[in-house]
Amino acid sequence: MALSLKKKRGASVLIKNMDKKKILLIVEDEVSLAKLLQQEFFKEGFDVLVAYDGVVGLSLALENKPDIILLDLLLPKMDGLSLLRELRKDPWGLDVPVIILSNLSDAEKISEAASKEVFDYLVKADWKLEDVIKKVKDKLGM
């Protein structure tokens, strides 16, 4: 299996074998957290796309059609809820599972995310990496 790291302005991609692996998109502006998630999910057998802002995140989602998306709400250029609204306008984007990872515990934001059919909402301070991996795998039936 070939390993490649592709860089695009505002994004990075770890790929083993795009035709057989589940594809995960992480949209997270905290670079250290995004890289940690990227490395751990790659070790778990995922092909991982990472965007550090909402505009690049939406572009990567629509171009690559990942199996699941981990999405922060507070992002530069386009916030996570705006990205989610745009994503849900696309026929493919209507059904893609999204897990929100955010520092916000604001009930209004959680409610709006839920109205966009978000699979789960995790407050960053409350979760462990293993929990996030388990939620993603459970949602994908792995």
TrEMBL record:
Coiled coil: none annotated. Signal peptide: none annotated. The keyword Phosphoprotein applies. Pfam families: Response_reg. Keywords: Phosphoprotein. Residues 23-140 form the Response regulatory domain. Transmembrane segments: none annotated. GO terms for biological process: phosphorelay signal transduction system. It comes from the Bacteria. The modification 4-aspartylphosphate is found at D72. This is Response regulator receiver protein. It comes from Candidatus Magasanikbacteria bacterium GW2011_GWA2_42_32. The lineage of its organism: Bacteria, Candidatus Magasanikiibacteriota.
